[in-house]
Design goal:
Elements lengths: L2 H25 L9 H5 L7 E4 L5 E5 L14 H11 L11 H9 L10 H10 L8 H21 L2 H11 L1 E2 L2 E2 L1 H9 L8 H10 L11 H17 L5 H9 L17 H16 L2 E2 L4 E2 L8 E4 L3 H34 L4 H8 L2 H8 L4 H7 L4 E6 L6 E6 L1 H9 L3 E7 L6 E5 L15 E3 L5 H12 L6 E2 L4 E3 L2 E3 L4 E2 H6 L3 H23 L17 E3 H8 L7 E2 L5 E5 L5 E4 L6 E2 L3 H16 L16 E6 L6 E6 L4 E7 L14 H4 L1 H13 L77
Parallel strand pairs: 1-7
Antiparallel strand pairs: 1-2, 3-4, 5-6, 7-19, 8-9, 10-11, 10-24, 12-17, 13-16, 14-15, 18-21, 19-20, 22-23, 23-24
Amino acid sequence: MKRSVKILWRIFFGGLLFVILLFVCANFGLFGKMPSMKELENPEADLASEVYTSDGAMLGKYFLEDRSEVKYSQISPFVINALIATEDIRFNEHSGIDGKAIGRSVIKMGTRGGGSTITQQLAKALLGQGKSRTNPIKRGVEKIKEWIIAVKLERNFTKEEIITLYLNRVEWGNMYGIRNASKTYFQKEPKDLKIEEAAVLVGMLRGAIYDPVRHPKKGLDRRNTVLAQMREAGFLTDVECSKLQALPLITNYKKTEDAVGSAPYFRATLAEQLKDWCKNHTNEATGENYNLYKDGLKIYTTLNSRMQRYAEESVQAHMPEIQKKLNALLKVNAKGMWKGHEHTMDQAMAASDRWKEMAEDSVDEETIKKSFYIKTKMNVFAYNAKGYIDTLMTPYDSIKYHKQILQTSFVCMDPASGAIKCWVGGVNFKWFKLDHVTRERQVGSTFKPLLYTLAVKDEGYKFNTVLQDGPLTLNNKTITGTAGTMANCLAFSKNIGAWRLMSVVGPERTVEFAKKAGIKKDIPSFPSIALGAAEIPILQMLQSYTMFPNEGNSVEPFFITRIEDKNGKLLEEFHAAESKAVISPADAFAMIQMMQGVVKFGTGKSLSNYKIPVEMAGKTGTTDQYADGWFIGYTPELLAGTWVGCDDPFLRIYSGTAGGNEMALPNWGNFMRKVYADKTLGYGRMKSFAIPANYDTTGFMGDADFAKPVGTDSTDEDSGNGSAEDFITTPPDKDTVPPNKPVQRSEAIMPRKN
């Protein structure tokens, strides 16, 4: 035999051996994990992680691929025919790999039909492979693995099972499965799809560029191409095809929401914490970090399902009413409020889906901007049964409209353990994703109890200590007014009272005390924090208030109790943080008494309308011209806080005279009324705040201690006179301070943020 022939045979057998070796290595996972036979015989979607309340109700799930499985009999034959005609005409003939299709693809350089069968595409989905266009070696390895799995699938499944599994796993845009796609684009089950509708969905499998909503022309062209291929495959006659191709492109698109249901804001925030947990914990079964969206974790929380429902119902009852007040003001003063803030609209347009989608389609910026001023049919948020209304509006006006919707946050917790019982982060998660529970806002007069507590703790002040009338200047800023007793000043939220106390304890000591009480946010040591100029998240404000009903101890809020794996094995258990003594039980009770005056006689007096059958205490808060309305209150068993305002603080409700009492307090009152009416929750056993042992009850606080002095002025913060700058008058010759009390100064007063 000639030497050249021997070389050719060696090359041939060597190449054949190399290919066989590649397939063997791939099959045994040397090029990456391969599904086992058990996994192929029992294929299933990644397991979603589930979130549960403390009373056993499921709040929701976290999943990567939202699939809703259907059986072969539940799929329209038009979908099956369209899929086979378009993707794999020899599907019923080959055994996973179509040699003819591969040969045709090679000869035609890929211009006429691809070589990838439906079974291969399913194999790729099971392997979770992407495209490696820039790496031919990796692409080749992926193709070998794909072929191996395709052959295994064909050996273990019938053709009907393969096509059903494929349609349940395949991706349509950002959703998975034929049922989700059918429900989203046509509002019907897969078995009810018409021929032309099936062609639309099958056409989308070639890429998002054929989405009939975002790209109607390309979607129509692709649909007609699918219909033509169905005709070529014998599924349609020429006449049927022509009639169907002449039909307009009609969809009934309605985006599905994967985060509706109970506590959606909580679940979104919880997900971020769980992702961090997963990064630091290894799944023993895989040797990799846990995956929140794949590993089927079970997360148990402190939330109570009924209390969560009551919180959401309370918000939905109150927010439409307070929105009416803002709407009335906008009719006469919208132009004035928006003046100087037009840039916020430019930022909002640039961040919108419309802008991003048009930019992806290479539309120039000027054309994109013009599109925002063209009226179009759309849905906008509304307080009705559907949660929206159909209207004709420009996209620009739509953005502005939604910015003028008032938002809210509401959280209730156990002040002794720190366990959070409910969490509402906004008025509607479908329309407004920002969780206001975690957002920082100016806290207004809800900060004042910390200042008063410090005066009681360190300066020996009592409820009947008389604070001197104004004017008083701190750092070249002057506030004046009629003060009165400590009890009176707190009950009616006298700014001159808080300003007077700030001159005594000073901003540095106040900030230090706030941190001890649980406020982690850095607060600049400016005198204006006495009036609530600092921006603090509601959870931190709630922690600072735990010391009042918790006998002087501060406890940090928490909301996860344990995490289990998919088999119920405990992975980690969480407990309440150890409480920290901040003030004495006696000082805590003294503050409770003064804060009871707020809801009995002062700015929170309207709370009596809710007929809550236990003692209550709390504090209202309002910032400059009603940009923010607050109420934080507690009973002997529960502590809750709520905030109301627009996302943009320059949108302000400055009509009315009740401040936080009117804006936020009804959320709290409605909720507590429902909770205490539900006897199955077990609250109401403690009717009154416990008096500390050895507490001196002589000279016990009475109703007269809260009476307003004759000739009182209108400088109450919660009557609508908000921030420090609203009380500036011409400075006197020198600062006026209580006798024998030092003045502590800072370099500057905190500027008001608009």
